[in-house]
Amino acid sequence: MVKPTRLLLVEDQTLILGALSALLDLEEDFTVVGQMPDGQAAWAYMQHEPVDVVLTDIEMPGMSGLELAQKIHQAFPQVVVGVITTFARSGYLRRALDAGVRGYLLKDTPAHQLADAVRTMLAGQRVIDPELAAEARQVMDPLTDRERQVLKLAAEGLTTAAIAEQIFRSEGTVRNYLSEAINKLGARNRVDAARIARDQGFL
C-alpha cells in the first residue's frame, strides 16, 4: 500500500489553518502531519519529522513563508514547497520562484483544485496562476538583497544607527543603501519606499 503524502501546513490565521487541514485530510492520498503558526515553528518541526510537502502563507510573524521556502530549498531540496496566500503580487511570485517554490496559489482556490495542484507539484510541475505569471515576467524587483534587508528594518522603525549595528555596517553605508532603494522605487523617503516595496511584493 502506498503511504499518503505527508503535508505540513504553515499559516498564522488559526481558522484558515484548520480549514485547510480539514479539507486536505479528506483526500485519501494526503495526511496532514503538522499545523504550524509561522515559519520558525515549521522549520523547527522539520528538523526531526519527515515531510513531503510544505504549504505556507507568505506574511507571518517572525520567519516569513518566503524565508522558510528558501531555507527548505537549501536544506531539504526533496521537499515540495507551495505558497497559499491572499497576495496576488508579481513581486512575491518572483521571489517565491527564486526561493524554489513550485506552486503559487490563492486562498480562494477551490478545495478540489488545491488538492490537484499539490499532486501536480509532486509530479515535478509548477502550478501558477497564468495571469500572475505573465505579470511577473514584466515586473522586475529592482532591490538588492541588502537594500531589501535595510529597507525592511527601517520600516520596522529602526534608526540608521540601529540598522548599522544589526547588519555590521557603518551608518554611512546604511544611508547609501536606503538612498539607493528610495531612488530605485521613485519614493519620497524611506517610509514611502517601504510602502511601495511592500505593495509590489518586493519587501
From TrEMBL:
Domain of life of the source: Bacteria
Keyword Phosphoprotein: yes
Domain HTH luxR-type: 136-201
Modified residues annotated as 4-aspartylphosphate in this record: 57
GO molecular-function term, one example from the UniProt record: DNA binding
Keywords: DNA-binding, Phosphoprotein
InterPro entries in UniProt: CheY-like_superfamily (IPR011006), Sig_transdc_resp-reg_C-effctor (IPR016032), Sig_transdc_resp-reg_receiver (IPR001789), Tscrpt_reg_LuxR_C (IPR000792), WalR-like (IPR039420)
Signal peptide location: none
Presence of keyword Phosphoprotein: yes
Cited SMART domains: HTH_LUXR (SM00421), REC (SM00448)
Pfam families: GerE (PF00196), Response_reg (PF00072)
Domain Response regulatory: 6-122
Stored PROSITE patterns: HTH_LUXR_2, RESPONSE_REGULATORY
Protein name as catalogued: DNA-binding response regulator
Organism of origin: Saccharospirillum mangrovi
Lineage, broadest ranks: Bacteria, Pseudomonadati, Pseudomonadota, Gammaproteobacteria, Oceanospirillales
